[in-house]
Amino acid sequence: MKRMNRTKAKKVLRWAGFFVLCVGLTGETCLEERGVEVVVGASVTAPFEARGEQNVHHDTYVANLIENADVQQILEDNGFEDMVAAYIESAFYRVTKQDAGAADRMVSGYITVDGKNLIQYASIAVNDPTLADWTPVPLVEEGVDYINGLLADYFIEMFVNGNPNPPEPMVTFECGGTSEPQGTPTDFDWEIRVKLVLVGKTEVEVLDPL
Predict the structure, then answer these.
(1) Predicted TM-score (pTM) of this structure
(2) Position 209 pLDDT exceeds 90
(3) How do the residues of the chain divide into helix, strand and coil, expressed in percent and rounded to 5?
């Protein structure tokens, strides 16, 4: 067994004495509440079906940003009591059902949110096995700013205007594009995931030095 060095032993004894002094003087430990900033990750996922006899795929998905990202649970779990900042950090896509009819299926297209460009993609090999896992995809500033604005409005209404149940933003994700080879119907499933970051303040108990 390793022997505790002398410096560490002195620190332990000093803190032990501090606690004894606190309890002896006040009957309870010397703690105080302080606000700390907490960073939490969340995500919004939108599934799509790509079907098309003429090799033009198109689909929409309506999402409640607050419910889809489980924001209310995040607020409760972290005890956020002050203004929360939320913004998009990154985006990913993955194929959940490969195109069995065309092993060499290639797609190009777009994803918008309420008509605002969010993601552009080109020459994706649908049946690439690596796409079964989440793959990063570049974001378009127009769609990012739009979603960030909706989240900001939601939290301003909650924390600044004092509305405990502000309207939850609903958005429509729309995807579309073309695929090759022609002559074989498009038939695959995929989804996108937008990763969010929430930053808020909560109260924690810390030692109050004498």
Answers:
(1) 0.79
(2) no
(3) 25, 45, 25
